[in-house]
Amino acid sequence: MTSEAEPLTLVLVGPMAAGKTSVGRRVARALAVRFIDTDKRVAAAHGPIPAIFAEHGEARFRELEREAVADALDEGGVVSLGGGAVTDAGTRELLKSHPVAFLTVSADVVAARIAGGGRPLLAGDDPVERWKTIFEERRHLYEEVATATFDTSRRPMQRIADEIAAWRREQR
Ligand code: S3P
After folding, report:
1. How far is the CA of 4 from the centre of ligand 1 (A)?
2. 39, 133, 152: which to mutate for ligand 1, most atoms within 8 A of CB?
3. Cβ-contact 2, 98 below 8 angstroms
4. pLDDT for res 26
5. CATH number for the segment(s) 9-166
6. What is the pTM (predicted TM-score) of this model?
7. Which sign does the torsion angle of CA 85, 112, 41, 99 carry?
């Protein structure tokens, strides 16, 4: 049973640079619930993500990420996941009891968004090509966990956020 005090919870998944953080903040504001970015939680507790990958490997990062997702879902609100969180079976299991919005973005608009670095999986010569390959590898996992899909390529983030908030209210 859902009590009045329980926050409206939803999860945002999608590839790197799909707008999960910028859309997520706005959705949280619209629903008057907290916003939790699990990458930020992991970095706050364990240090910068590139350093975790370099020193302990991706598998360890996925464990830390899974713990952060579990805690965030317990707290409730809008929970934005890192792009690769869905590759972890335990994390996918955690998502089953919540509405999940899959944010997509086209490769031609992603280039500007991924400039600036900080994403170890895109390090190297052709980050857009890497991004495309990784997205295609994971697409079936996003589709598996998603309750609904929203494209962020062409419309203002606020419009997309309003749409997601309206969709979430209908899920009650
Ligand atoms: C990753 C995406 C990043 C971050 C880490 C790994 C991935 O999050 O969790 O660099 O595997 O796609 P964003 O999707 O917020 O960039």
Report:
1. 34
2. 39
3. no
4. 98
5. 3.40.50.300
6. 0.94
7. negative
